[in-house]
Description:
Helix content is 60%, strand content 8%. By secondary structure, it is of the alpha/beta class.
Amino acid sequence: MSRQRQEGSPVSIPSASFGIALQTFAALLWLPQAALLAWVAQRLAAGQAGLDWLALIGGSFLVLALARAAADAWGVRLSYARARAQVGERRRAGLRALAGASPFDARRVAAGAAASALAEQAEAITPYLTRYRAARVKVQVVPLALAAAVACVSWLAALILVFTAPLIPIFMALVGWRAQAASEAHLRELGSLNAYVLDRLRGLASLRGLGALAYTRRRLRALSQSLRIRTMAVLRIAFLSSAVLELFSALGVALVAVYVGFHLLGQLPFGAWGASLSLGQGVFVLLLAPAFFEPLRELASVWHDRAAGEAGEAALAALGREVLPLPGGASAAAPAAGARVPPEVRLDAVSFAYPGHASAPLREFSLELAAGGHLAITGDSGAGKSTLLALVAGLLAPDSGRVLIQGETLHGANAARLRARMAWVGQRPHFFAATLGGNVRLGRPGVDAAAVRRALGLAHLDLVAERRGAARLGEGAAGLSGGEAVRLAIARAAADPACDLILADEPTAHLDRATADAVIDSLLALGEGRTLLVATHDPRLVARLGCSVELADPAPRAEAA
Length: 561
Ligand SMILES: Nc1ncnc2c1ncn2[C@@H]1O[C@H](COP(=O)(O)OP(=O)(O)OP(=O)(O)O)[C@@H](O)[C@H]1O
């Protein structure tokens, strides 16, 4: 049964330490099992093992084996559940960080790399949290307990174990730093490949149109080759670490076996406490020796899980390294309830420069747009028109000065609420693989079928929608003309009853005269009873808006038309 979780409600994470403790306890149960087997060997050799006694010991051995398997399985299950919850939490944190970066942050992680970090790279954290963490605890407890048990019988066998064991961590540490670097390089390569593929897939039509496919093919091949080399490097290190471990644990077990064998033959009559070892004691030591190395072998086999897991964690953490945070974060808020008038917009000596850019698009810029006013922002390309709209939308925070929406200074705490009453008609709206109506509705709770119909009518798209019926839009709005795409963006804004401040960024760019006129009609219809701020180069749109501000003007004032 799938469990639903309310967004933002705390996650109930099962205890990892209990799960690991259970797995450690299961490993320690080998001690009484080995003791039982050694006892059987001793009694059989002495001819003292009756059938009843053997059945009793066999039954006890079986019970211990079942308890061991059950404890191990339960422990693994608990650790796994905990790890899945933790990975889910980290994914959510990564998503929050991504959503908390301004869409104007040019240095944001590329979409493909972000998808790779959130999907496959995050998956590498689960084995790290489950197998590696459990192996690390077992390695600290089980060998010590087994060495102490062996030492009770033979101090020399215990010494052999204790002196051969540290070789393993030393070599593992030597291999470990290479493993970390190789895993990080591997995951970086994976992210780059994903980012490259997604980026080029999006621009496939341009690449094909410009005859640039051959270079893309070569580059893709080079990236895949590089990923193959990185993958092989990780695998080589993983195999090397296992081989080192197997070698040293085999050496340790062999040394103990040689000592015990010769001791029982009377060749090495020392190393036990006083008298020589009995057959049962020898068997007991021999059974414990491989179990002593078992946790170390397990740790070696999951050693590269740690490197991959830490690299996955680093990739998720990198998603949060935004340069330009989105004021108010990604949180969604409902606009304030009650009857409202469209907001007045004021910019008060606003300055803004993109990080790392010396020139500031806006310096001490002021502007007043009355409630319900319509205003065109004009200026040369690169003058900062889109930047100004982004500042009004709270997608960027000014370096100095204030943006006021209906007298309220826009800042982190109220940005989400104020944004809820704005709509952005951008230069490059994204359309989803859905019907025209679906692309207007976007699953928004306040937008019903009637609102979608009205919005399509306002944008003069009702006939297009009728003609298309249930047909879905193709990738990148394939199937729509440029003008229809802008009018669809206008319909989206029109469908939301809460939105009374429209920010439009060059809505008529690249459109022919007739199409641009249709878009202007739709935009002005949308602007009725709403405040409308439009960045544009189009003199006809400026004329129809009736009021404009040239961005170069140091302190422009504008009133509603
Ligand atoms: N996300 C960004 N990161 C860094 N610099 C940016 C970013 N967006 C724009 N710029 C720079 O800021 C300046 C203003 O850009 P903006 O897009 O606001 O101008 P614009 O007036 O809207 O231009 P256009 O009319 O060509 O759309 C330009 O020099 C641009 O290169």
